[in-house]
Structure formats: C-alpha cells, structure tokens
Amino acid sequence: MNIRGRKREGAELSVESLNDIMFFLLLFFLIVSTLANPNVIKLMLPSSKQSEQTSKKPISISVTKDKLYYIEKKQVPYDQIKATLESYITKAPDLTVVLRLDQGLLVQDMVDVLQIGVDLKVKMVLATERAK
Fold first, then answer.
1. How many angstroms separate the CA atoms of 57 and 20, rounded?
2. Distance CA 127, CA 64 (A)
3. What does DSSP assign to residue 131?
4. Which residues does residue 62 pair with via DSSP β-bridges, in sequence order?
5. How confident is the model over 22-67, as pLDDT tens digits?
6. Topology annotation, domain 47-130
7. SS3 per-residue string spanning 30-91
8. Beta bridge partners of residue 121, listed in sequence order
9. Could you give the CA distance from residue 89 to residue 93 in angstroms, rounded to a whole number?
10. Which of 40-44, 76-80, 113-117 has the lowest mean pLDDT?
C-alpha cells in the first residue's frame, strides 16, 4: 500500500499586474499632491526679487482686498486680532507672524496690522511672491 501522496507544485502568484497597479497609484498621488493648494485664501501677493525662508513654524495673518482678516485661515474681525495674537503669544513667546496682504490694499491697512504687532512686540515679516 502506497500511502505517500504525490508531490504537488506550489501555487504561483503573478506580480506583474500588481506592479502596474502600484505604479498608477504612485503616479496618481504625485499628480494630486502637486495640484493641492495650501493657501485657501485668494491673495495677490506683492513681488520681490529677494526672498528669505523662515525656519520656525510661523502663524499667518492674511488680509484680502475686501479687508477680511484671517489668522491661520480662520476669519477674525479687525478688533479681535490683538486678542487672538495674545493667545498665540502665551503658547509660543518667540512667535513670528507672516503678513500676507493683497497687493490691492492701501499702505495704511498694512501699517494698521503692523502696529498691532509692534504693540505686542511680535516679530512680523511680509510675504511676497518671487518676481518673474
């Protein structure tokens, strides 16, 4: 009596199609990530020939041409900007604020926001676009 079974060949898995699927997924995510816009607030920033990158994680104050004020993409009335910044300063005393102002605004609008930073003794920088 022969009880031993025959040797069966192992099942094979074809991975060529998996490579194609992974390639298309990688390509899809690369394309989608380049199309994502981190700034949701539509601003036309002034241009500059020189630029400097900040090393710390700053907070941003954006002002649209309609004089709508945003702190970290959250709309804030003008009279609440100082109180909101004070709450950020208590969390991080060496805070840097990036001003993102629409180029259609008056200089006085920029000075008003800068004066709040001077009153709170906060380092403020002006965001610009690189000149083309």
1. 39
2. 13
3. P
4. 70, 100
5. 999 999 988 887 777 665 666 666 666 666 555 467 888 999 989 8
6. Nucleotidyltransferase; domain 5 (3.30.420)
7. HHHHHHCCCCCCCCCCCEECCCCCCCCCCEEEEECCCCCEEECCEECCHHHHHHHHHHHHHH
8. none
9. 5
10. 40-44
